[in-house]
Amino acid sequence: LVKFVQPYIKRGVGIELMNTLKSLQDPTSRLRELDMLVESLDELSTERALCLDEQRREREAFNKIITKSSTQKTLEGVVKQLRNIPWRRQVENQGLGEAELAARVQLMREDHEWDMSELDYNDLEAVHDVRKSAKELRYVTREFSKVLPESAGDMTEQAKAVQDKLGELCDCRANARLVVEICGPDAIDTAVRFVMCADEIIRELESER
């Protein structure tokens, strides 16, 4: 959402805010991957026990980061900025025009649909980027629904469906990588099952193009 409204915020502030938010989010990435992996493993398996240990260590490391006084100070600063966004003078005087917002959302939708039509599902970075664009489209259409055309609701549902499916694909690939990283060669069979799941999702996505 900050990225979407960044052109309407005073120069430099929006970019700085996005960078700060990213720095706060980055330490959660591996923990989220471990959470998804543990949920996907058999409760009685050796792999799950090993991954639970890694999950615990990662959570402890994250708790140390998030409770640091410097991190808390950064969080407080972000909350303060979000509550008092320094809009550009024109926006303060005239507000955000509905037609302009609708045009920007429509452009986002067209760009996303084009990226989806050309997406190589074996390109991990490209899949990640398209997943992010689907998430952006979903959140923007939801949060700005009062000033967007009625059809924006359809965009939200479409974006959510794509985001969920791409999320499943990314999770399967991350699971395959992590389970071997943590458990070693003995987890190859489990990793193969995750890869097969990813292949099935790709076939489903390709059939819907």
Description:
Helices cover 78% and strands 0% of the residues. The chain has 209 residues and is an all-alpha fold. It is built from 10 helices and no strands. Helix 7 (98-118) runs antiparallel to helix 8 (124-143).
Give me a quick take on this structure.
This protein has 209 residues and is mainly alpha-helical.
Helix count equals 10
Q: What is the alpha-carbon Rg in Å?
A: 20 Å
Choose one word for the global shape.
Answer: flat
Mean pLDDT: 89
What is the CA-CA span between the terminal residues? 28 Å
E-strand count: 0
Low-confidence stretches: none
Largest sheet: none
Secondary-structure topology with pairs:
Blueprint: H1 2-5, H2 13-25, H3 29-40, H4 46-66, H5 69-83, H6 89-94, H7 98-118, H8 124-143, H9 152-183, H10 188-207
Helix pairs in contact: 2-5, 3-4, 3-9, 7-8, 8-9, 9-10
Features:
mainly alpha; 209 residues
